[in-house]
């Protein structure tokens, strides 16, 4: 078992994570407030941009192969090197979905009729 340093940019928070543990489980153990919901790699609430380093996350079904190279789902991701992560950063597909959802509602937040 190898341990790696995971630094969360902009927060001053750093934790040690074994290559056999998920980043989220170590955050929870250390009392770091990492957002999450489903814990099965689908909802993307725990997404973080990979600033530096590598992870393995074969069960991160919510990400495309291309997104998995740039984003970590902390509930699934296990470090393969020391890491720098930017929490609360979401893949473009999520940002695009949010923009589409916003344009499909009227000013009162009600769904627009098609």
From TrEMBL:
Gene3D superfamilies: 3.10.20.30. Residues 4-91 form the 2Fe-2S ferredoxin-type domain. Its cofactor is [2Fe-2S] cluster. Residues 83-114 are annotated as: Disordered. The keyword Transmembrane does not apply. The keyword Metal-binding applies. Keywords: 2Fe-2S, Electron transport, Iron, Iron-sulfur, Metal-binding, Transport. Residues 94-114 have a biased composition (Acidic residues). GO terms for molecular function: 2 iron, 2 sulfur cluster binding; metal ion binding. Belongs to the 2Fe2S plant-type ferredoxin family. This is (2Fe-2S)-binding protein. It comes from Halorubrum saccharovorum.
């Amino acid at each position: 078992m190898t341990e790696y340093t995971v630094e969360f940019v902009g927060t001053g928070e750093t934790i040690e994570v074994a290559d056999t543990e998920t980043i989220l489980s170590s955050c929870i153990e250390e009392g770091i407030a990492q957002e999450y919901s489903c814990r099965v790699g689908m909802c993307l609430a725990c997404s973080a941009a990979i600033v530096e380093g590598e992870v393995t996350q074969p069960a991160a079904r919510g990400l495309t192969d291309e997104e998995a190279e740039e984003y970590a789902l902390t509930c699934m991701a296990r470090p393969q090197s020391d890491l720098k992560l930017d929490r609360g950063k979401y893949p473009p597909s999520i940002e695009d979905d949010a923009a589409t959802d916003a344009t499909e509602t009227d000013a009162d937040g009600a769904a627009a009729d098609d």
